[in-house]
Design goal:
Blueprint (H helix, E strand, L loop, with lengths): L2 H16 L5 E6 L10 E6 L12 H17 L3 E2 L7 E17 L19 E17 L4 E10 L7 H16 L10 H4 L1
Length: 191
């Protein structure tokens, strides 16, 4: 392999690394539900759906639960340990293996690449684990989801425990920033 091919290959690998998937956050809600009626909550891990041994571990479930608790308290909701809560905040996580493929597209239709180098098209791939955190906010009386938020990306690629704490806290905070600001406000006013 000549020097130009090596430099181009390193350039493409660098681009691949910089294009690594980031955390994407989305949410949905029922516009017919008046959130003003809710003021208390209880948090639950969805034990049936937290099947991944790493992202769904008890340690990560505690991280998510703690971040949810902080976020809801900051919005004026009150936790209920005994008795009925207005809202059940149920979350789960999962992980999937993904592959990112990228081509450097250096060949032109005339057989010449960048600057006439004539290098063939090279395809690079990168395997990674994509994680998802899903938070369902359920009306405890009807058992209907009234709000749902989720984040998708690479959560489990941090090496240090503190980084994982921060990754899960930031992810939950990013999801919950779309939740109504405080108890007693309807959703339209909180957006």
């Amino acid at each position: 392999m000549n020097v130009k091919a090596i430099i181009t290959s390193l350039f493409v690998v660098g681009i691949l690394a910089s294009c690594a998937p980031s955390i994407t956050v989305k949410y949905d809600y029922d516009p017919k539900v008046n959130v003003r009626q809710f003021s208390t909550y209880r948090i639950e891990a969805d034990r049936q759906r937290n099947a991944d041994p790493i992202v769904g571990s008890n340690l990560n479930q505690r991280r998510i639960s703690d971040a949810l608790d902080q976020s809801l308290k900051a919005r004026g909701y009150k936790p209920v340990t005994q008795g009925e809560a207005d809202l059940v905040v149920r979350f789960f996580t999962d992980a999937r293996d993904r592959q990112q493929i990228q081509s450097n597209n250096t060949m032109s239709p005339w057989g010449w690449g960048w600057g006439g180098w004539g290098m063939p098209n090279q395809v690079y791939s990168r395997n990674y684990e994509e994680n998802r955190v899903v938070i369902n906010v359920i009306d405890a009386r009807t058992n209907d989801i009234v709000w749902q938020g989720w984040a998708t990306g690479q959560l489990n690629n941090r090496n240090k425990e503190r980084d994982r704490d921060q990754a899960f806290r930031e992810t939950v905070t990013s999801i919950m920033k779309n939740f109504p600001e405080s108890a007693g406000q309807d959703y339209g006013a909180a957006r």
